[in-house]
């Protein structure tokens, strides 16, 4: 069992999605995260076990490598894709309560900004580390964030912006969230965003990348 | 107020300025580049201090040391102020600018016209005899707005600082174009000019015409002003007879009249076969069209192709590596000078060379650890892991835009007659290498300065109507609304053009 879970973790780490995908070249023609997850379910391994000891482990490893500049965006996106493809087969077990998630995370790219590669990367990484992600998409205004928090009052909230011209919209959204829901923890990120900016607008955390965000989430949700 | 005398070599120019004046303001007109917009980050604006002393900061001194220059002898112009009399030497650079020598006449008309290609980086002004269609003279210069950022997004950010900044950008480019028009006076034919046509991207359009660029800075990107604008040459203060100066309309929020002119130059709207036009830049524009219709899109490639965000990136000026031999690694530089950096075409070639030689894998990762994480192309210029990643992001944006536009139109790359690559980078880049990496595909061909060529055609009344026709035929495809974007983008983040998903 452990060996199979390790294999799943490895597939996620190197971005091996399924049998068909030719990446990484060294694993061409071999089963990927998807087939191995299905196999694990068939062998009766608990879905929670597959998630935490397989998929999440692989995501953790790639997250650390990304943080240390050992791998880059392409590899992480492939890992996230492998994770995302495999996790679909576990989703039926999430709703019946047999897999406990660590928490909920609302994420969106702020109003005026349509960039979503970075936001999606963070969303996949957070999901890959065992959180339920509520992805509001791009060009998300204050009302949409507030509505999502109303439905998921215990969720953490992440805001992304890639342009200096749209980063400023974070201030208004963050203030509105804090005014309506003082207990909600907010995160901001994106290329032009800095820790000073987070402090200035009263957001709780700025993180430089997905791995740091996941580490903070794990700390404050524990 | 203390005045200081600043002597500038090799031009031998001398100027009196107030103490505290930034060196950037003094040397900007001497061909010094400010890719990061004067924020002290890129280190491209260094000048040599031959005598005297300047006030500067520790950060810029560290940057100089990293570049192997002594802070006692060199200064970053954007981070140094005049405190006493000075003698400076600015690096001598040639700026190859792509013009267009083609002759086109539409018979009926007489007199002269002026066609202007207002690019983010370069300005080209041509005087045309409308009867013969012959180009009488060409004048070109760098866009003086470059002082405030190399790419259009940083230009927008600067314009949004305050009203004065936007006005400064407008004034500087109008004045520089006026100066270029004066250079054409040597032909003795300026008094015959009856009209002027300007083409440029939508940001250049807004800045020149004096429209607010804020709508171009954020979604939904709906500017109320994409229309053609006509000014009087006299009101602009240009040395021409009183005649209309028309900035042609944008096709959409991020596809400007430079592309409209490109469509006209290539006659896409009259073509039986589907053809494509690609302009590689911070904002990559892609058009596919035929007489059946034209669809355009724009894709955010980022400024890597202009050398921004590349550790030793620079524009295609003297000393820039513009090509790398795929077998030997020998570099080619602009002007044949010693290599001091890397421009867009050099970046494409360098990545191709590394892939071909097995020094990087298809994710762009170095296959073995390198000292300092840098691969030296020459003793002075190296490529970092991060540089290759920046390239990949730009490649993915362009290739994804092209693929999704084809898909949207129900076409395959093999349905296209030709894929024209326009502009300065299109001219310099090795098309076979770009294709092998997965940046471009199809039956590639260089198209030259299609913006200028089309602008010349639009000088003729009969063809001016075609601008309307093309605008009517053209629709915009919004990539950002496409659900397949993410997967396609991931697939194109890998080198070699193989289908990865």
Describe this structure in words.
The complex is a heterodimer of chains A (222) and B (501). Chain A has 222 residues and is an alpha/beta fold. Chain A folds into two domains: 2-95, Methionine synthase domain (Methyltransferase, Methionine Synthase (B12-binding Domains), Chain A, domain 1); 104-221, Rossmann fold (3-Layer(aba) Sandwich), CATH 3.40.50.280. Chain A contains eleven helices and five strands; from the N terminus they run αααααβαβαβααβαβα. Chain A has a five-stranded parallel sheet with strand order 2-1-3-4-5, with helices on both faces. In chain A, strand 4 (186-189), helix 10 and strand 5 form a beta-alpha-beta unit. The longest helix of chain A is centred in the first third of the chain and has 21 residues, at 47-67. Chain A is globular and about 50 Å long. The model of chain A has no long low-confidence stretch (mean pLDDT 92). Chain B is α/β, with parallel strands linked by helices and 501 residues long. Chain B has a domain at 3-89: Beta-grasp domain (Ubiquitin-like (UB roll)), CATH 3.10.20. Chain B contains 15 helices and 24 strands. Chain B has helices at 23-27, 58-66, 152-159, 163-183, 202-209, 214-217, 233-236, 257-266, 344-356, 385-408, 423-428, 431-437, 450-457, 461-473, 485-491; strands at residues 3-9, 13-18, 46-51, 54-55, 74-76, 81-82, 86-89, 112-118, 122-129, 135-142, 193-200, 229-232, 244-247, 274-279, 283-290, 293-300, 320-324, 331-333, 341-342, 374-376, 382-384, 416-422, 444-448, 474-476. Chain B has a six-stranded mixed sheet, sandwiched between helices. In chain B, strands 23-22-14-15-16-24 form a six-stranded mixed sheet. In chain B, strands 2-1-7-3-5 form a five-stranded mixed sheet. In chain B, helix 8 crosses helix 13, helix 9 crosses helix 12 and helix 10 packs across helix 15. The mean pLDDT of chain B is 91. The A-B interface holds A 17, 21-23, 25, 69, 71-75, 77-78, 81, 111-117, 120, 138-139, 163-166, 169 and B 153, 156-157, 160, 214, 217-220, 300, 361-365, 385-386, 389, 392-393, 480, 485-487, 489-490, 493-494, 498-501.
């Amino acid at each position: 069992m452990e060996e199979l879970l390790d294999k799943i973790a490895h597939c996620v780490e190197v971005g091996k999605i399924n049998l068909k995908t030719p990446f990484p070249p060294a694993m061409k023609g071999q089963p990927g995260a998807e087939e191995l997850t299905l196999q694990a379910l068939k062998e009766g391994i608990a879905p929670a076990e597959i998630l935490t000891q397989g998929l999440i482990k692989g995501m953790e490893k790639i997250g650390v490598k990304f943080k240390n500049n050992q791998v880059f965006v392409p590899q992480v996106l492939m890992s996230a894709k492998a994770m995302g493809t495999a996790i679909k087969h576990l989703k039926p077990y999430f709703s019946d309560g047999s897999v406990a998630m660590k928490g909920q995370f609302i994420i969106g790219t702020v109003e005026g900004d349509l960039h979503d590669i970075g936001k999606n990367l963070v969303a996949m990484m957070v999901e890959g580390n065992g959180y339920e992600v509520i992805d509001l998409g791009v060009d998300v205004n204050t009302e949409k964030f507030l509505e999502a928090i109303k439905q998921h009052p215990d969720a953490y909230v992440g805001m992304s912006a890639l342009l200096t011209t749209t980063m400023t919209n974070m201030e208004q959204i963050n203030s509105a969230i804090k005014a309506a829901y003082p207990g909600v923890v907010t995160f901001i990120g994106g290329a032009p965003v800095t820790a000073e900016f987070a402090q200035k607008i009263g957001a709780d955390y700025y993180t430089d990348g997905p791995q740091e965000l996941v580490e903070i989430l794990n700390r404050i949700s524990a | 107020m203390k005045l200081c005398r600043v002597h500038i070599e090799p031009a031998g120019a001398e100027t009196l300025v107030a103490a505290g004046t930034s060196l950037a303001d003094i040397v900007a007109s001497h061909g010094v580049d400010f890719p990061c917009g004067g924020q002290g980050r890129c280190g491209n604006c260094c000048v040599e201090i031959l005598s005297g002393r300047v006030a500067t900061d520790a950060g810029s001194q560290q940057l100089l040391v990293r570049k192997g220059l002594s802070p006692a002898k060199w200064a970053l112009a954007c981070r140094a102020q005049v405190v006493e009399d000075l003698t400076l030497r600015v690096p001598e650079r040639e700026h190859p600018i792509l013009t267009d020598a083609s002759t086109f006449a539409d018979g009926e008309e007489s007199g002269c016209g002026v066609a202007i290609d207002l690019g983010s980086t370069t300005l080209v002004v041509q005087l045309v005899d409308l009867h013969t269609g012959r180009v009488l003279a060409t004048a070109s210069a760098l866009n003086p707005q470059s002082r405030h950022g190399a790419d259009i997004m940083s230009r927008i950010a600067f314009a949004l600082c305050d009203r004065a900044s936007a006005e400064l950008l407008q004034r500087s480019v109008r004045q520089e174009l006026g100066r270029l028009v004066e250079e054409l006076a040597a032909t003795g034919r300026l008094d015959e000019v009856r009209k002027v046509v300007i083409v440029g991207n939508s940001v250049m359009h807004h800045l020149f015409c004096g429209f607010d660029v804020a709508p171009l800075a954020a979604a939904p990107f709906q500017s109320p002003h994409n229309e053609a604008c006509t000014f009087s040459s006299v009101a602009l203060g240009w040395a021409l007879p009183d005649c209309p100066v028309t900035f042609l309309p944008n096709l959409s929020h991020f596809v400007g009249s430079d592309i409209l002119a490109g469509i006209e130059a290539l006659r896409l709207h009259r073509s039986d076969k589907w053809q494509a036009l690609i302009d590689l830049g911070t904002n990559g524009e892609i058009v596919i069209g035929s007489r059946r219709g034209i669809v355009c899109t724009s894709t955010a490639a980022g400024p890597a192709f202009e050398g921004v965000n590349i550790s030793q990136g620079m524009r295609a000026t003297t000393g820039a590596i513009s090509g790398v031999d795929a077998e030997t690694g020998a570099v080619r530089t602009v002007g044949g000078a010693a290599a001091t950096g890397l421009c867009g075409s050099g970046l494409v070639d360098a990545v191709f060379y590394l892939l071909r030689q097995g020094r990087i894998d298809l994710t762009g990762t170095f296959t073995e650890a390198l000292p300092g994480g840098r691969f030296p192309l020459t003793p002075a210029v190296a490529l970092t892991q991060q540089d290759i990643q920046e390239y990949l992001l730009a490649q993915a944006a362009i290739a994804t835009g092209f693929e999704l536009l084809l898909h949207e139109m129900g076409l395959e790359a093999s349905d296209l007659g030709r894929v024209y690559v326009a502009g300065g980078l299109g001219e310099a880049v090795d098309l076979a290498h770009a294709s092998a990496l997965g940046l471009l595909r199809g039956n590639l061909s260089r198209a030259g300065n299609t913006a200028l060529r089309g602008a010349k055609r639009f000088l003729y009344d009969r063809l001016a109507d075609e601008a309307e026709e093309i605008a009517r035929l053209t629709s915009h495809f919004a990539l950002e609304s496409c659900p397949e974007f993410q997967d396609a983008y991931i697939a194109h983040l890998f080198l070699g053009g193989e289908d990865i998903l």
